[in-house]
Design goal:
1 helix; mainly beta; 151 residues; 11% helix
């Protein structure tokens, strides 16, 4: 399965784009410009996040290195917008990209630059597609294409 993110707008702190699965537009996405992943291809795996206490789609920065959630210190009173103790890019729900420095990509419906709504609904759709493909033994690839214009 190929997940494609086409970045189309870059503001001071935000990068907004559109997420496609197998060429079909699924939702909008946003990233923090300071911690955003570079354009390219990455593998996606699901791994139990120690902070969120659930399986999350994690982006592997290097093909031969698995993300190591065991190195992540457990924090108290964690929610989806809590700052993470280390860089761990993943696809996840969230309201905005401000103060996010973990490289994550939030998904939902565009409201304003860097802000999304209905994030949980969109995330659940994407997560189920990723989970089912990985269970069937199909690799999941994230392809980031940067077509941004600085404004």
């Amino acid at each position: 399965m190929i997940i494609k993110i086409i970045r189309h707008c870059r503001k001071a702190e935000t990068i907004d784009g559109r997420l496609y699965i197998e060429g079909i537009p699924i939702c909008d996405c946003a990233e923090n410009a300071l911690s955003a992943l570079k354009a390219g291809e990455y593998l996606v795996v699901t791994q139990k996040c120690r902070q969120l206490h659930r399986n999350m789609p994690v982006v592997r920065l290097h093909k031969d290195v698995l993300p190591c959630c065991a190195l992540c210190k457990k924090m108290k009173f964690v929610n989806i917008n809590t700052k993470r103790p280390r860089k761990c890019p993943m696809l996840k729900p969230g309201n905005g990209v401000y103060h996010r420095d973990d490289g994550s990509i939030i998904v939902g419906e565009f409201i304003a630059p860097g802000c999304l709504k209905n994030t949980k609904e969109k995330f659940d759709i994407i997560y189920e597609r990723i989970r089912k493909n990985l269970e069937r033994g199909n690799p999941v690839t994230l392809c980031i294409i940067d077509e941004t214009q600085v404004s």
